Please model this.
Amino acid sequence: LSMNDTAILLIDHQVGLQALVKDFDIVGFQNNVLALADIAKGLNIPVVITASVPEGPNGPLMPEILEMFPDVAVVSRHGEVNAWDNPEFRAAVKKTGRKQLIMAGIVTDVCIAFPALSAIEEGYKVFAAVDASGTFNEVVRYASWDRMSQNGVQLMTWFSILLELTRDW
Model:
């Protein structure tokens, strides 16, 4: 990972979707998400944020994310399950000028796996922040991790991402 070629994509970290996260303790999960967001903020790495139907049952984004990035326009999606299918989201990613994408979100098997695989098809190098992405249970988690890793997505934790980016204490 290179700080000069990396963008962080926060996908569907919405209050209503957090109820679906059963493969992590919810407080620990939220802390992992905020740690990844802090990496973007602290290292001045471009961040792209998207939410799926935030005015509906998925609910708004985690308020801490919105507070952390008041100047980042949230891409609201209205129907696209795969965020990559949303032209505004893809344009926001392309606008960063970065080719290494760190992705995290809810739920791992859809909201991360689908755009991760799509981004790889378009030539991006993709890293999934697995401890800042949650899903229904461990079976679903491991199936999605397996699918992604077999297709070139590198699985990492927020802490290993931080240390690989900074390469120094």
